[in-house]
Amino acid sequence: MPVSRCVALVLLVGLLAFPETAAANSPAQGQQASSRPSAVDCPDGRVSASTGSRAIFYVSPKGRDDWSGGLPHANAQDKDGPLASIGKARDLARASGKPAAIVLDAGDYYLGKPVAFGPKDAGLVVTAGCDGAPILHGGPLIAGWKAEPDGRWTAPLTLPGDDRVGDLFANGVIQTEARYPNAPSDGDPRKGWLFAAPCMGPAEPWQGNTRFCFHAGDLPPLDDLTGLAAHIVGGFHPGSQWGSDTLPVTAIDHARHIVHMR
User: Are residues 77 and 117 in the same domain?
Assistant: First the structure.
């Protein structure tokens, strides 16, 4: 069950160079390989992008970041070939100061963090190769799934810092996150919601941005709030909503019936 976590990804433009330690039969740092083509030539005569006279650097799911990126596939000695990550290609680009293009081979790329480009990367062409479509997943591949006795599927996942799961895809299909209350079986958007209660006692106006109160008995006790978020809609009836926010929950005060968020 291949599953990936997707987040926003923005690719801009930049420049590429060779790695500081060139592999066997690879060009030295800052030199352009004479065997590099000036465009991405496809068997049927198509060109995947107007790369002009740029140096081309290849990235592939089968690549390695200690290779030069000067070849679309690994050589016979398995000593040189495409890079493995767009981020590595970007870093090498910045070191070269030369016009270049990044060519992505077909396949799946699982990005543990966004790939950021800035003004100093201006001029780089990022394009697909001729072997098919590269697919960029904005999150890691989640493996090690196992079936639990209660019918759930679980897998280990460690996220850095305050990162949390955004969207989850299985076999290319976005999955519905666990929620409370459950979504109504008839799809009626007016069902499956809890309604906020008036908060008792004094409060500062700004606290309305970081907390809300609930009715007694609405929320079940929770031992672990990791990854819990509240989806809050201002205005309920369809067509009258004036706001929609999804905020991480930091604490639930069951005695005072308050949900705290950040």
Answer: yes
